[in-house]
Design a protein that fits this description.
The structure holds two protein chains of two kinds. Chain A is of the alpha/beta class. Helices cover about 35% and strands about 15% of the residues of chain A. In chain B, strands 5, 6, 7, 8 and 9 form a five-stranded antiparallel beta sheet that branches. A four-stranded antiparallel beta sheet of chain B has the order 2-3-1-4, with helices on one face. The chains are: A alpha/beta, B alpha+beta. The structure holds flavin-adenine dinucleotide, thiamine diphosphate and magnesium ion (MG). Flavin-adenine dinucleotide binds next to helix 10 and helix 13 of chain A.
């Protein structure tokens, strides 16, 4: 049936393009805009400053319209995956919606890893993809891929726009859905012919969707109960995650934790949500969390979970977690995050900031004083803390990766944007760089995507051009988006790459050492490039550091080059492992510590 | 436990695949799924028959609510409801068995809607278990073909799923 209607259809506008009909009118008034103009005007209306993208046939009309505008800057990456990662990092650093633009087919599929990465960490993005002209859809046309179908499992929502008149309202919906409720990526797939058709531009001021109304305010009765429990707790504990960062609630969190005088831990995604240098912070929890954080999670009697989703890398085996009883309060904007892996007692569906503000009001009215029980609890925590689980044996001969991160923290005064790739280096960065502010630690937690580090650093540098941006990476990960060295050159991004080069897929090697009797199957990184020369060939500064004594000096030298991209290749101890560690299937209090081995 | 979930969603291309995709991606059971537009053509009404522990059912309801196209979700099992399914079944009806087949059909309050030389086509509505019972009561070799719609459900009395 489809086929019949297509053969009888009028020749589409796109058939006449680009030679016979201009895709974009020169000074498009709002009355007669091409679809491409409308896309641009929507981005302008949303206040978009950067679009990360890569051109191709299906988006040529849009690129032509980009050429004629000056409302936002288009950043030309070298691979669509990097476009989405950079847009994602821009969002993580600023809280704004990140925007990426890719062509149909291979451009669209290249974007998938980026989209899935953002989806797993709840990052708001609008990804615009070109599509083959409407009459060609379904005919295995050149560079056709069913983008809506392919992305369905890894987006918050997606749209295929089939009429030029729908572009504006669809874009409005896309931005609205991406940034509200639990944020996430939204794909808008636009067929080429639609971007050439004419319509009036009319951007809705606001949008109402009967099927989409995320809750923001928490239930006051539940909040009262929660506060009562917290005030009466003998061994209270606060566990917060990415939601505090996404919901811009760090200040409210600090206030609550300070007034209650309780210990607090952050997930990998929540780091910076509470200042790491504060005494009440017990470090990250989970698989590679600190001894004190994991023990306190296990032993507390009242647990307040805020914008965190009881991930399997966080609480380990749920059965073991429930071998101790405790009352759990869970604040999350997404009802489906609550009681998914762990049954909770006091669910509070709402936006962290509003819920924490309400809690703060109630707590302030009570003016809590430190109880003897809380004092005893802190003594216990200090005893756990005194095991100094993050101590490592520094060496004069080999550069210890932990040492590099400690020095990085010192040299950047704890105030850099730190992006990371995935592996051991990621865990060391999380453990040893003490993040005092939210939106400074930029990494892929949920999908664990190797290759994000460099494009993430790009997104951060665009977000904050004068800031110090460090990309902590491994020699495996950096090679997964190494082509972006070229983008960094083009836009003069003064990023500092901190490569912890252990010549191994270290995280894989660590598991093979522990669980596969040292059978290092395919985890050695052979035939590495000379990273110094590689960086230089792109016009950057390259440095190789092999001696522990040179680490600090080299870092200072690199960060002093404020306008240069510096690639620092640190040749580190090959066999260093990440501790503490909880094996798969084990419980929170069953950590392996460095001192045990 | 078996649950019947009713929902209203935007009647848009791809909406059905979002629900089906959700069930397969998260490994939830689907016994049956029926969908059609309502009296308001912008809305579709879907009935999903699923099964799982209370925790799984709770997640299913939450995940369905989370789909941007879904307007309202109701777990019919939370109250009183009626469930009906339609079956068309073609059975052998040769000279000797024609009468007996007609009698079985009457007992189950089915209707013969097509009569051919060697066969009847019977239309039967009821709960899934009633349809099962009818099939059970027939000689397996007599069944030529069955088509079932899957269950549709509706709340009793003033339990109404509407926007
Ligand atoms: C190699 C490797 C090792 C890892 N090891 C660890 C580890 O040791 N420890 C660790 O913690 N993680 C670790 N992870 C990360 C882990 O996989 C998860 O990504 C992470 O723990 C999830 O963090 P989260 O619970 O804060 O949830 P996020 O994924 O950040 O989810 C945020 C939650 O907050 C909610 N939310 C969002 N916005 C709001 C709002 N405005 N108001 C209220 N709620 C909101 C969301 O609905 C969601 O439930 C590791 C990852 C890798 C790749
Ligand atoms: C795209 C992708 N492929 C594979 C993996 C599995 N993986 C996780 S960590 C890791 C090793 C990373 O090696 P490297 O970047 O050198 O970091 P190191 O662990 O040595 O610090 C691998 C292969 C992954 N997370 N992402
Ligand atoms: Mg490595």
């Amino acid at each position: 049936m489809n086929q019949v209607s297509i053969t009888t259809a009028e020749p589409s506008v796109s058939d006449k393009l680009p030679s016979e009909q201009p895709a974009t009118s020169k000074h498009a008034s709002d009355k007669h805009c091409t679809g491409a103009d409308i896309v641009i005007k929507c981005l302008e209306a949303e206040g978009v400053k950067f679009v990360f993208g890569y051109p191709g046939g299906a988006v040529l009309h849009i690129y032509d319209a980009i050429y004629k505008q000056n409302h936002f800057k288009h950043i030309l990456v070298r691979h669509e995956q990097a476009a989405v990662h950079a847009a994602d990092a821009f969002s993580r650093a600023t809280g704004e919606v990140g925007v990426a633009l890719v062509t149909s087919g291979p451009g669209a599929t290249n974007a998938i890893t980026g989209i899935a990465t953002a989806y797993m960490d709840s990052i708001p993005l609008v990804v615009i993809s070109g599509q083959v002209p409407v009459p060609a859809i379904g005919l295995d046309a050149f560079q056709e891929v069913d983008m809506v179908g392919v992305t369905r499992p890894c987006v918050k929502h997606n749209f295929l726009v089939k009429d030029v008149k729908d572009i504006a309202v669809t874009m409005k919906k896309a931005f609205h859905i991406a940034r509200t409720g639990r944020p996430g990526p939204v794909v808008v797939d636009i067929p080429k012919d639609i971007t050439a058709h004419l319509a009036e531009f009319n951007y809705p001021k606001s949008i109402e969707m009967r099927s989409y109304n995320p809750v923001t305010k928490g239930h006051s009765g539940q909040i009262k109960k929660a506060v009562k429990l917290l005030l009466e707790a003998k061994r209270p504990m606060v566990y917060t995650g990415g939601g505090v960062v996404l919901g811009n609630a760090a200040e409210s969190l600090i206030k609550l934790v300070k007034t209650l005088g309780v210990p607090v831990t952050n997930t990998l995604m929540g780091l910076g949500g509470y200042p790491a240098t504060d005494r009440q912070f017990v470090g990250m929890l989970g698989m590679h969390g600190t001894y004190e954080a994991n023990m306190a999670m296990q032993e507390c009697d009242v647990l307040l979970a805020v914008g965190a989703r009881f991930d399997d890398r966080v609480i380990g085996n749920p059965k073991h977690f429930f071998s101790k009883s405790r009352t759990i309060i869970h604040v999350d904007i997404d009802p489906s995050s609550i009681s998914k892996r762990v049954k909770v007692d006091i669910p509070i569906v709402g936006d962290v900031r509003s819920v924490l503000a309400e809690m703060n009001d109630l707590v302030a009215a009570e003016a809590p004083k430190q109880s003897p029980a809380l004092k005893a609890w802190w003594e216990q925590i200090e005893a756990w803390r005194s095991r100094l689980c993050l101590n490592y044996n520094n060496s004069n001969g080999l550069i210890k990766p932990q040492y590099v991160i400690e020095k990085l923290w010192e040299v950047t005064k704890g105030d850099a944007y730190v992006t990371s790739d995935v592996g051991q280096h990621q865990m060391w960065a999380a453990q040893y760089y003490k993040f005092d502010k939210p939106r400074r630690w930029i990494n892929s937690g949920g999908l664990g995507t190797m290759g994000v580090g460099l494009p993430y650093a790009m997104g951060c540098q665009f977000a904050d051009p004068t800031a110090q941006v460090a990309c902590v990476t491994g020699e495996g990960s950096i090679q997964m988006n190494i082509q972006e060295l070229s983008t960094c050159k083009q836009y003069h991004l003064p990023i500092k790459v901190i490569l912890l080069n252990n010549r191994y897929l270290g995280m894989v090697r660590q598991w093979q050492e522990f669980f596969y009797e040292n059978r290092y199957s395919e985890s050695y990184m052979d035939s590495l490039p000379d990273f110094v020369k590689l960086a230089e060939s792109y016009g950057h500064v390259g440095m190789q550091i092999t001696q522990p004594g040179d680490v600090e000096g080299a870092l200072k030298e690199a960060f002093a080059m404020k306008d240069r991209f510096v690639f620092m290749d640190f040749i580190t101890d090959q066999k260093e492992n990440v501790f503490p560690m909880i094996e798969n299937g084990k419980g929170l209090s069953e950590m392996i510590l460095a001192e045990d081995l | 436990m078996r649950h019947i979930v009713s929902l209203l969603m935007e009647n848009e291309a791809g909406a059905l695949s979002r629900v089906a995709g959700l069930f397969s991606a998260r490994g939830y059971n689907i016994e049956s799924l029926t969908v059609a537009a309502t009296e308001d053509p912008t809305l579709s009404r879907m009935t999903i028959v699923t099964s799982g522990s209370d925790e799984v059912i709770e997640q299913i309801i939450k995940q369905l609510n989370k789909l941007v196209d879904v307007v309202k979700v109701l777990d019919l099992n939370d109250g009183k409801f009626i469930e009906r399914e339609l079956m068309l079944i073609k059975v052998k009806a040769t000279s000797t068995h024609r009468e007996e087949m007609k009698r079985m059909c009457d007992i189950f309050r089915g209707r013969i809607i097509d009569v051919a030389d060697g066969s009847f086509t019977i239309e039967l509505t009821g709960s899934g278990t009633k349809l099962d019972a009818f099939i059970e009561s027939l000689d397996k070799t007599a069944i030529l073909e069955t088509v079932r719609t899957g269950a549709s459900g509706i709340g009793r009395g003033d339990r109404i799923l509407k926007i």
